[in-house]
Design a protein that fits this description.
Length: 171
């Protein structure tokens, strides 16, 4: 049986656009995961501690045969690859991949809470998610409505094409 799920990806160290693109391509090459949609790429200025790089964010829709825990494992594998320190030119890179929603599933396991407990406070998650799944309901409201009501200050689109992740070279 296959299920749909939505992922939130982001990072702010190194060539994040390249790291996100590679992570998405690796996920789509997984035999039990198909990436069926990727949002435009966004960036947001750092908040709080301001002397750090901008954040890049996007969301992806996947169809998968994996149970939620196994999908999380596959995402964490990409985080590990993306976090690997490189002594060359572009330095370390950090990416974070969360499962935002796993179709029809609500659970409160501390190791995996679904829908993701902090996503509703974050415009940088809600806006790209609403781009690819505007009618998806989270706690009885569409992502489009959640996104419209979120604080979008500073959120900028970097690339509006939905296949930027296929066309971005690895760093
Ligand atoms: P962070 O480093 O802040 O992204 O936190 C990652 C940890 O949060 C992971 O080790 C997961 O066990 C846990 N977690 C709980 N719910 C989720 C979720 N929906 N997606 C990703 N990680 C989750």
């Amino acid at each position: 049986m296959t299920q749909k799920a939505w992922l939130g990806l982001g990072g702010n160290i190194g060539d994040v656009r390249a790291a996100l693109a590679v992570a998405l391509r690796n996920l789509s090459a997984h035999q039990a995961i198909k990436v069926t949609g990727v949002s435009p790429l966004y960036k947001t200025p750092p908040w709080g501690v301001e002397d750090q790089p901008w954040f890049f964010n996007c969301c992806a829709e996947v169809v998968t045969k994996l149970a939620p825990e196994d999908l999380l494992f596959a995402c964490q594998e990409q985080e590990r690859l993306g976090k690997r320190e490189r002594i060359q030119r572009w330095g370390p890179r950090t990416i974070d991949i969360d499962i935002l929603v796993y179709e029809s599933l609500e659970q409160f396991d501390p190791g995996l809470t679904l829908p993701h407990p902090r996503m509703l406070e974050r415009a940088f998650v809600l806006v790209p998610l609403a781009d690819i799944a505007p009618k998806l309901q989270i706690h009885n409201r569409t992502t489009k409505k959640w996104a419209r009501e979120s604080d979008q200050k500073g959120l900028e689109v970097v690339d509006t094409t939905n296949d930027w992740w296929r066309n971005t070279d690895a760093a």
